[in-house]
Design goal:
The chain has helices spanning 2-15, 60-71, 118-154, 174-180, 184-187, 201-213, 253-273, 292-298, 319-332, 375-381, 386-396, 404-426, 431-438, 442-451; strands spanning 18-23, 28-33, 80-86, 90-104, 107-116, 159-163, 169-172, 220-223, 230-240, 243-252, 277-282, 287-290, 334-343, 349-359, 366-373. The radius of gyration is 45 Å and the shape is elongated. With 463 residues, the protein is an alpha+beta fold. The chain folds into 4 domains: 2-116, Beta-Lactamase (2-Layer Sandwich), CATH 3.30.450; 155-257, 2-Layer Sandwich (Beta-Lactamase); 274-381, 2-Layer Sandwich (Beta-Lactamase), CATH 3.30.450; 398-451, Orthogonal Bundle (Arc Repressor Mutant, subunit A), CATH 1.10.10. A hairpin with a 5-residue loop joins strand 6 (159-163) and strand 7. The strands form 3 sheets. The chain has a 5-stranded antiparallel β-sheet with strand order 2-1-5-4-3. 41% of the residues lie in helices and 25% in strands. Helix 9 packs antiparallel against helix 13 and helix 13 (431-438) crosses helix 14.
Length: 463
């Protein structure tokens, strides 16, 4: 008999994850954990206690309904899902089927055979999270697509998106379609090269890509096939979802001419009426042209008075200033906020701040200078010289506590170091120009730099 019970227990253990025998009063009489399930832990403390103590609040009414049917002599064949809780720490769902077992100790007993639902619950939770992530991704994509469509519809410049792989038009806006002489619907999916005269697809797309990645990127000139308009294409290539796409901005010859004329007009008016002095010189600093503001600054009557002369003739440090400006402009393309003084025809000096740009868009490069009067700023800085008077008084207080030779030597070193630092800053660490500015030989400057610990000091330019 005991062998039969053991066989039955083994059969139940193999067939279910958990088996619970309860009385018609709901008390746990016996409990068996399936052979495949080890995640429930030790549940032996359930025996002898009401099973309601180990059910969640929403599961108790479902179990009571089954128990009432059992007391009435009926056992439902429908599976019921119950959520167990143990010590209010963790919960686990189980799907039970109920079977009448007969009487135990003179009372009817009910056996509950359960299948653990935690793997299914975890899978469902993962599916829910995945669905939420997808919904968020779809929402973000819809929002991005709405912004993209609105931007493409409202931008006034003709814009076309072209696939590099097959040369097909992926998208475009209405101004681009109008410039090409057709509608947007007709162009989407069509071969972009066919919209222009004498253009083959492979060579045309390759030319656009090469133009977009060129260091001297410019416009790609074509003629439309439908209305024979001259069009300049400015391409840029980018990668989206593993595919290279060209974004092409189209500009008709008439639009380019109008834009260029407006810009030229505005620049001309700015040059003639601008408050700041503007000077264009050759690569060596010889004045080619200038505006009236520069003529006023140097007290010259006509352009002919300054044309052909070196701009260094009007700078406070002469050719030293000019060499510093030209060298930095050639090396980095521009130099900003260089402080010096302008000498007029009568020898008067005006504090100025200069910026220079290297104009290399022609066969013979030129230099463009913008010179701003900084005399008011220099006047504001003048009261700061009172600090030097305080320093002088401090030096005089040393009289009596040190010899005249020691006092002069100490103050000379301080002044010498300040002058060397100022020269190095003004020349942007150009040691040759700094030596010329200070009237020293190059070797003497290096000796003094080493003396004051400035030889290996990095120069950080100020914008």
């Amino acid at each position: 008999m005991s062998q039969g019970r053991d066989f039955l227990a083994s059969l139940i253990s193999a067939a279910t994850d958990i088996a619970v025998i309860v009385s018609n009063e709901g008390k746990v009489l016996s409990l068996l954990i399936g052979a495949r399930e080890t995640g429930f832990g030790n549940l032996s403390h359930w025996e002898g206690r009401s099973i309601n103590e180990f059910l969640t609040r929403e599961s108790i009414p479902k179990f009571e309904s089954v128990l009432e049917d059992f007391r009435a002599g009926e056992v439902s064949s429908k599976a019921v899902e119950l959520n167990h809780t143990d010590n209010a720490v963790w919960e686990f769902p189980v799907r039970y089927t109920f079977h009448a077992l007969g009487e135990i100790d003179g009372k009817p007993a009910l056996v509950m055979l359960g299948r653990d639902l935690r793997p299914i619950a975890e899978t469902q939770q993962q599916l829910v999270q995945a669905q939420m992530s997808l919904e968020q991704g779809y929402e973000a994509r819809r929002e991005f697509d709405a912004r993209y469509r609105l931007l493409l519809r409202t931008v006034r410049d003709p814009v076309v998106f072209v696939s590099v792989a097959d040369g097909k038009v992926k998208d475009l806006n209405e101004p681009a379609a109008a410039l090409l002489g057709t509608t947007r619907e007709d162009l989407i999916g069509s071969d972009f090269a066919r919209e222009f005269r004498d253009r083959r697809r492979e060579e045309f797309i390759e030319g656009l890509v090469n133009t977009s990645i060129s260091d001297n990127a410019g416009a790609f000139d074509v003629v439309t096939k439908r209305n024979r308009h001259a069009v300049a294409i400015t391409p840029n290539v980018f990668r989206a979802a593993g595919e290279r796409v060209l974004i092409c901005r189209l500009e008709s010859e008439q639009q380019a001419a109008v834009r260029h004329d407006d810009l030229s007009l505005n620049l001309g008016v700015l040059f003639e009426k601008g408050a700041d002095a503007m000077v264009f010189t050759s690569a060596s600093g010889v004045i080619q042209t200038c505006n009236d503001s520069f003529l006023d600054m140097v007290d010259a009557a006509h352009l002919s008075d300054v044309k052909g002369r070196s701009l260094g003739d009007y700078l406070g440090r002469g050719q030293i200033d000019m060499s510093v400006l030209i060298e930095n402009a050639r090396r980095s393309g521009q130099m900003r906020l260089y402080s010096t003084r302008i000498l007029n025809e009568f020898g008067a000096k005006t504090a100025v701040e200069m910026s220079v740009t290297w104009l290399n868009d022609r066969s013979e490069p030129e230099l463009g200078f913008v010179i701003r009067d900084a005399s008011r700023v220099d006047a504001i800085r003048t009261p700061q010289m009172q600090g030097h008077e305080d320093s002088a008084r401090n030096v005089m207080e040393l009289v009596g506590s040190a010899s005249l030779k020691d006092i002069v030597s100490e103050t000379t070193d301080v002044v010498e170091k300040m002058c060397i630092e100022t020269a190095v800053n003004l020349t942007r660490n150009n040691r040759v120009a700094a030596a010329e500015m200070l009237g020293l030989s190059r070797q003497s400057l290096y000796v003094k730099l080493r003396k004051y610990g400035l030889l290996h000091k990095d120069y950080v330019p100020e914008d």
